[in-house]
Design goal:
By secondary structure, the protein is of the alpha/beta class. The protein has helices at 19-31, 52-59, 120-145, and strands at residues 4-8, 37-40, 65-74, 82-86, 89-91, 99-101, 105-113. It contains three helices and seven strands; from the N terminus they run E-H-E-H-E-E-E-E-E-H. Strands 2-1-3-7-4 form a five-stranded mixed beta sheet, covered by helices on one side. It is globular, with a radius of gyration of 14 Å.
Length: 146
């Protein structure tokens, strides 16, 4: 049976960057009984730019297909769009840094508009809704695959 590892990128310290850990939190709760799926990056233990090298070292020893989940900023009309691509991603770009996170697949969801901070309450609600939607889709697919 195929094994899958989800690395959910982001920090619980910034609302705009908490999408990945929020998805990881939901996936961990919904898929924890499945021994073929491992979830890394939750609100309590996020994967972010500073600790990513530690997770990358850890991931080198884990068998399975790695799928990275992250948020992105984009045009207002694209908020809520999710993109899945082959390969890894660069993390930290929104903060003027860059670290390549290799993977078989990456999933990015546009969570906000570039150069515009949302009101905290509205942003939290929107990101929670987007995280729930993506996590539900992943859970449905994983239940069919494993």
């Amino acid at each position: 049976m195929e094994k899958y590892i989800f690395a959910c990128i982001g920090t619980s310290q910034l609302i705009e960057d908490s999408f990945g850990p929020r998805v990881g939190e939901i996936l961990e709760k919904e898929l924890k009984q499945n021994e073929n799926i491992k979830i890394l990056g939750t609100m309590n233990c996020p994967i972010h730019f500073q600790n990513a090298p530690i997770f990358l070292d850890y991931l080198r020893n884990l068998p399975g297909k790695l799928i990275v989940i992250d948020s992105a900023l984009g045009e207002e009309k694209l908020i809520g769009n999710t993109y899945m691509n082959r390969g890894g991603i660069e993390i930290g770009k929104a903060f003027g840094r860059s670290l390549y996170f290799p993977a078989q697949w990456n999933i990015k969801t546009i969570v906000g508009k570039r150069a515009k901070q949302l009101q905290e309450e509205k942003a939290t609600y929107q990101i929670n809704q987007l995280a729930q939607r993506l996590a539900t889709q992943i859970v449905n697919v994983m239940q069919e695959l494993t």
